[in-house]
Specification:
By secondary structure, the protein is α/β, with parallel strands linked by helices. It has 15 helices and 13 strands. Helices cover 42% and strands 13% of the residues. Strands 2-10-9-8-7-3-4 form a seven-stranded mixed sheet, with helices on both faces. The protein binds pyridoxal-5'-phosphate (PLP). InterPro entries: Aminotransferase_I/II_large (IPR004839), Asp_trans (IPR000796), NHTrfase_class1_PyrdxlP-BS (IPR004838), PyrdxlP-dep_Trfase (IPR015424), PyrdxlP-dep_Trfase_major (IPR015421), PyrdxlP-dep_Trfase_small (IPR015422).
Length: 426
């Protein structure tokens, strides 16, 4: 056999420059930059209220006891294998996840009109849904609430869909801009896709009431809009999984079509397991079957098939009456802590006489509070008090412990006073 001499390295750039020389430095992603800054800060009182992760009173990562219990069982199951799942994930996980959102008696499920596929957490459930719509739906425009979860525009536009916004929140009154929402959806392009947060709107913590959802539903159906729900906080708003799915169930049982991206990151604390699902409610079982076949073609080149572990945990909890009960009890306790911390923060600000009306903190729901603090006040909190949060004034109530509330209230008080014109302080 002829001896092959090692080839001389080909010199493409005679000056030795990288082939990637022209790449520009991308800006930091704000929520990760905030976390990095927090991690570097040596101050013992520092607080991280930026990232959407529920923590314990001790500020530690919260792994649910029911999840730990299931993981022990899974680890002891020597018959479990690690082979690939089907492209659409674990069938039992899909069935139980659909029932959790649409209700076990859902007519759409009974009539086999719901397609559910296991996806890689909430983010990829949204992305797979967006890719599906880009490929198979005639209208390529998505209306997002203003404001919305920071990754929504990335996930939706990455699929090639065009973004528009609808009014959702009134920054002056700090409540839902219901009139603005109705006007904007009333004049949206016919057939356009509309993204809704099923409950616990991120970042505002402001949700429509049941009556308002019903009005929205009627308008959406009259105008032929296609609703796409993002369900990332089921159970964390009211403490009840059924109540928090009301918006989805209204649309899921009216005979019309809709999409739902679901995440178990927050309500089961499975953040790093990346477990969620995408459901598409169709008009007929036959359409649903064809939709499912096309979803496989969307998923195959994205990640081929989803991971096992998170789906195994969720399935074990959803299918066992005792484990389900344990989960709902823990979820209720998490939700009750959110309500208690909100109340404590509100009381502290009132007791201190911090200028302004802070009642929105206790009216808002779920994990987040849109405090109404402006960027300068947020910068002040970080600079003077080592408190890290989004520059839009959103805080993660789930990241705040009762112990830390007095410190946080002092900091807000100071920030608000320091931003008032000196004439008003006399
Ligand atoms: C509204 C909303 N949707 C989706 C997600 C993404 O969640 P996941 O971690 O499951 O991808 C988040 C995360 O914060 C969120 O707030």
């Amino acid at each position: 056999m002829e001896y092959l001499k090692p080839m001389e390295p080909t010199r493409i750039h005679s000056n030795g420059d990288s082939l990637f020389q022209d790449i520009t430095l991308a800006p930091d992603i704000p929520v990760y930059a905030t976390t990095a800054a927090y991690n570097k800060d040596p101050c013992p009182n520092k607080l991280h209220l930026g990232i959407g992760v529920y923590r314990t009173e001790e500020g530690k990562c919260h792994t649910l006891n029911v999840v730990k219990q299931v993981e022990q069982t899974l680890a002891n199951d020597l018959s479990a294998d690690k082979e690939y799942l089907p492209i659409t994930g674990m069938p039992e996980f899909n069935k139980l996840s659909a029932e959790l959102m649409f209700g076990s008696g859902s007519p759409a499920i009974k009539e086999s009109r719901v397609v559910t596929v296991q996806c890689v957490s909430g983010c990829l459930s949204l992305r797979v849904g967006a890719e599906f719509l880009a490929k198979h739906y005639h209208r390529h425009v998505v209306y997002l609430p203003e404001p919305t979860y920071g990754n929504h525009p990335n996930l939706i536009s990455a699929a090639g869909l065009t973004l528009k916004t609808y009014r959702y929140y009134d920054p002056k009154t700090l409540v839902l801009d219901f009139q603005g929402l109705l006007e904007d959806l009333g004049s949206a392009l016919t057939g356009a896709i509309v993204l809704f947060h099923a409950c616990g709107h991120n970042p505002t913590g402001v949700d429509p009431t049941c009556q308002q959802w019903e009005q929205i539903r009627q308008l959406v159906r009259q105008r032929g809009l296609l609703p796409f729900f993002d369900c990332a906080y089921q159970g964390l708003v009211s403490g009840n999984l059924d109540d928090d799915a009301q918006s989805i169930r209204m649309f899921g049982c009216d005979g019309g079509e809709c999409l739902v991206a679901q995440s178990y990151s927050k309500n089961m604390g499975l953040y790093g397991e990346r477990i969620g699902s995408l459901s598409i409610v169709c008009k007929t079982a036959d359409v649903a079957r064809r939709v499912e076949s096309q979803l496989k073609l969307i998923i195959r080149p994205l990640y081929s098939n989803p991971p096992i572990h998170g789906a195994a945990i969720v399935t074990a909890i959803l299918k066992d009456r005792d484990l389900y009960k344990k989960w709902t009890n823990e979820l209720k306790a998490m939700r009750d802590r959110l309500v208690q911390v909100r109340r404590q923060l509100y009381d502290s600000l009132c007791n201190k006489g911090t200028p302004g009306d802070w009642s929105h903190i206790i009216k808002q729901v779920g994990m987040y509070s849109f405090t109404g603090l402006n960027k300068d006040e947020v910068d002040f909190l970080t600079r003077e008090y080592h408190i890290y949060m989004s520059s839009d004034g959103r805080i993660n109530i789930g990241g705040l412990s009762s112990k830390a509330v007095p410190y946080f209230a002092d900091a807000i008080h100071d920030a608000v006073l320091s931003s008032l014109p000196s004439s008003t302080l006399a």
